[in-house]
Amino acid sequence: MTTAPTRPPGKAERIASAAPSRLGAFLRLRELPVTVALIALVIITTVVNPLFLSPQGVKDLLLNATIVIILAVGQALVIITRNVDLSVGSILGLVAFGTGTLFATVPGIPIVVVFLAGMLLGALLGAINGLLVTVAKVPALVITLGTLYIYRGLNNAWAGGTQYFAGDRPDAFGSLSVDTVLGFPLITLIAVVVVVIVAVYLAGTRPGRDLYAIGSDPDAAKLFGIPVSRRVFLAFLTNGVLAGLAGVLYASRFNSVGATTGSGLELAVVAAAVVGGVAIFGGSGSVVGAAMGALLLTTITSALTALRVDKFWQEAIVGVLILSAIIIDRIASVRSARKLRISEARNV
Amino acid sequence: MTMEFIRNHTRKGASARRLASVTAVVAAVALLAGCASDTGTNTGTDSGAGGGTDGDLSITFIPKQLNNPYTDVVLGGGEAGAEEAGFAATEVVGPLEASASSQVSFINAETQAGTSVIVIAANDPDAVGPALEEARAAGAKIVAFDSDTNPKYRDVFISQVVAKDVALIQVELIAEQIGGSGEIAILSATANATNQNEWIKFMEEELAANPAYKDITLVAKVYGDDDDTKSFQEAQGLMQAYPNLKGIISPTTVGIAATARYLSTSEYKGKVALTGLGLPNEMRPFVKDETVTAFALWDPAQLGYVAAFAGKALADGDMTGAEGDTFEAGELGEREVGADGIVIVGPPTVFDAANIDEYDF
Questions:
Q1: In what helix (H) or strand (E) does residue B18 lie, and over which residues does it extend?
Q2: Do A255 and B229 touch (CB under 8 A)?
Q3: Scanning A123, A148, A204, A290, which has the fewest C-beta atoms within 10 Å of its C-beta?
Q4: What is the pLDDT of residues A137-186, one digit of tens each?
């Protein structure tokens, strides 16, 4: 399809590749399409329904996105290494129910302890995923599809018909998702901190860059001496910790936690990462993009309701976004492949 | 033959690998089949005993969804009722997700096991039809409860209350709470739930017909799919889409709790009224913090209890489910089958700050 014969570079192309302008670099940012879409969506919705950006409206938008943002950041880490974790919804469910159980059975337990316990349980479940993927050498898609059902099954067996409600938890815990600082709900600030830490780690540290190398070409990464298994394991472990954190926050935000909490969430999370410019075959993308993707997808739901659009259209629109993201990604990679070919031809 | 095909069309290494994976799959299937035939024999013996004498009847409850707190209360009543009514074996099976087709395989399994009475809360009135017809052909009596199937597929339907009464009491409560005028919305469960849609239809008729409600406008019906997160966001969306909204009716326990949680944590608390059908245990904090003043429900345990006795009367041949038939429902006394084979359990109860602490379910 793209096997056009290599031809000598045209004048315009030579100039473009010789002097990559700052504007060009900006336009090639993977996060750009999702950001533009988000801004356009917010502007259009606000023009039609000014209530959309009322203080309560903004607070709701941020709260809705918070949990998916944290999950999307973890998922981006895993996808960048050319893997995927489909069990995050089940991990979130187990941790959320665990959180409810802790508060209900250990009266007066400090909130910090609950956070730590939730993240520890998440880490354990993530580590199981990571071990299975790196030791068994079976595609993560299959492994985590299995653990999706195993974790959900454990949750069903553990919870049965029991549910814990907001009333069972201390007010201070619930108010984490009610109180705001400068208009930002507290749990959203936690999500922002997560995004910043992981973004810096990915962009600025050796192990962080290794994840991209692994995702681009696992075999080359191994030859280069990168401890592939260890890094991939770390990505799954981190994702588990973040899913655990999201589970604790879920219990803070929503009324009930039980056997079905978080089911079906995994697809929304993968969609958020992909829409945010994380290539599903690994090797490129950023957690900032994934977070923007999460914000965009949750904002669409609210926008369509605020615009009184039938909610049955919402899923179709999400699908269109995913396809657009993949097509944009494909065009970009074909272009850069061609450019590489051209510059290599010149260097000979 | 498949092996031949693979060997002919792949290279040697690949075919060996393929062979290995085929063997693995076969082994897995054999294992599964082993488990299945085990359970098959077990239920087989059960049903053999069950079919043998009149005294050894078996009853199986198929709720909309397992692990749903409301359903658990209903089933608790059902199990107690089944024991009192004298069933030899009581089972509860069902899907973990409330979807239209998910109950069919469970009905089929009960048919094969020769269960005498199947008590079902239909996720979809027609999707379960063919499977129920097969079960009846095999001799099972079908009791629908909570959410009806198409009447031609069951013997009787045990209704919590008169559907119209449930609808009317919710309209009455919301009218009272918003002072008789303004915009209201309905936050329901799934868009194709039989009971929800019947109540909504009665609510709409009442709002249109009763002059006392002439100043109340129903501006929206939204669906939270009995999912906490979705219901929560639908409640949020309603507030934004309809800034003049004065009240919400949520005739589903998940919806009303999620909406209450949203209202109680937002600036709309105390400004937008909320009523509907809720579980006292789940709604208690919201009644105490004045997000909700009053809501309604029936005693869910009685529903399962009466369903079990109806099943017994049908299986014993004491009644056929025709209009005018009567049966004894244990400590609740005699119940009569009404038009369309519907049996009514009792009137709805209204819960408010004054009485909510008297209930524990």
A1: helix B12-52
A2: no
A3: A204
A4: 889 999 999 999 999 999 999 998 788 888 888 989 988 988 888 889 99
Q: Are residues B256 and B311 in the same domain?
A: no
Cβ neighbours of B233 in A, within 8 Å: 64, 301-302, 305
ipTM, two decimals: 0.74
- Helices then strands, counting H and E runs in chain B, come out as 11, 14
| Bridge pairing between strands B273-276 and B245-250 | parallel
- For residue B257, list chain A residues with Cβ-Cβ distance below 8 A: 165, 255-256
Instruction: Please give, rounded to a whole number of angstroms, the shortest distance from the CA of A266 to a CA of chain B.
Output: 14
Are residues B217 and B140 part of one domain?
no
Q: How far is CA A254 from CA A36, A70, A205, in A?
A: 30, 16, 36
CA distance A86 to A90: 9
CA angle, A97 then A103 then A107, to 5°: 155
B71 touches chain A (CB under 8 A): yes
Q: What six digits make up the tokens of B70?
A: 């409301």
Beta strand pairing call for B141-145 and B326-328: unpaired
pLDDT band at B25 (very low <50, low <70, confident <90, very high): low
Which residue of A lies nearest to B288 if distances are taken between CA atoms? A167
Look up the CATH architecture of domain A32-347: Orthogonal Bundle (1.10)
Compute the average pLDDT of residues A28-40. 85
For residue A167, the chain B residues in CB contact (below 8 A) are 284-285
Look up the domain containing B6 and give its range: 1-28
Q: Is B292 on the interface with A (CB under 8 A)?
A: no
Q: Which residue has the higher pLDDT, B10 or B125?
A: B125
Least CB–CB distance from B67: residue in A51, A54, A160: A160
Single pTM value for the model:
0.75
- The reply to whether residue B282 touches residue A163, judged by beta carbons under 8 angstroms, is yes
pLDDT at B153: 92
**Is the pLDDT score of A327 beyond 50?**
yes
Contact A185, A178 (CB under 8 A): yes
State the nearest Cα–Cα gap between B72 and chain A, in angstroms. Answer: 6
Specify if B220 maps to a domain. Answer: yes
Both B284 and B185 in one domain: the answer is yes
CA-closest candidate to residue A189, choices A326, A70, A305, A17: A70
Q: Is B254 helix (H, G, I), strand (E, B) or coil?
A: helix
For the segment A75-89, the average pLDDT, to the nearest whole number, is 97
Are the beta carbons of B96 and A156 separated by less than 8 Å?
A: yes
| Distance, CA of B104 to CA of B194 (rounded, Å) | 17
Chain A residues touching B285 at Cβ < 8 A: 165-167
Which residue type occupies A340? L
CATH for B200: 3.40.50.2300
3-class secondary structure, B331: helix
**Shortest CA gap B243–chain A (Å):** 8
* B307 assigned to some structural domain: yes
Least confident of A15-24, A290-299, B249-258: A15-24
Tokens in use for A195? 């995004």
- 8-state DSSP, A6: P
